[in-house]
Amino acid sequence: MSKAAELAALIGGQKALGHKNLVKNGAMVVAQRATSVSGNTAGGIKTVDRMNPEISSAGTWTQSQSTDVPSGQGFVNSFKLDCTTADASLSAGDVCILGYRFEGLELQRLNYGTSGAKNIVLSFWVKTNKTGNYVVNFQNIVTGGTNRTCGKVYTVSQANTWQKVEFPIAADTVAGIDNDNALTAIMYWWLASGTTYTSGTLSNTWENTTNANIAAGLNVNLADSTDNEWYITGIQLEEGDVATAFEHEDYSTTLAKCQRYTATLGGLILPKMRESDRMRANTYKFPTTMRAAPTIPAMTDGSSISVIVQSISTEACFCYTTVPADGYGSEISSGTVISAEL
Question: pTM score, two decimals?
Fold first, then answer.
């Protein structure tokens, strides 16, 4: 078999398995929390699942799930950041970044830290009104050791036009990736930064992390005007040296992957359990096994009675409430978001 045939067979096999893309929700189709949230000054996942802006004293932003997408590529959504309060003069440590976080369990097949470590390639579609050089940075958070970093520069040369960006990332044979469910690696798209992270020299290969080198080469400040906006979709990180076509998958598959980190409660019936104290209780099984026992916010039922979460696991939670009068079973209001995010 020729090398080309071997490569085609490998790619075809990965597509058949449906898991060549290491990024979940790269097509931005799942947004369990909301489709648009304004007034962001500290970031955090508020709209599109898994897309985690990190903002520190670099303007105010609206993040949203947009329908502006590259034509003819099969996408229906993108993730958008829109500057609503500008900061044209950044202090040294100010940043605006889009982050995507990995748990170590997801990345073991890359064999980092061994002679058999695998190369990877990143591809994505991006659109912005602000031309210039941007940086994507990869970080391996090494427990008990020195963190590792590798970065790439991409150039936006035409404003308000979707462009595809792709580049390979050489394997790291020096440092392994922790094999656990904790925050182990991050991809960062740098959109604005002070000199703390830009005053050094960017390394295109893996090196021990030096703050000054992390975003060196970034020459734009997306926070400098309320006219600025930035879109991304079609994020794909895969094994190999050449980017392949984006791995589109059905919505239910993507949703199930996202529900490992975030799920939405609602419609949970709490039937009457004991007449003596009018207790209502039930066990709610999560849609899928979550990364860790999730954080559950304060909840009330349809009568504004507090719902008490007695126990939580990665699989389910047990809830109960007591009511002051006889009646039918209580029901938790829909839309309660629980989180086991990294």
Answer: 0.92
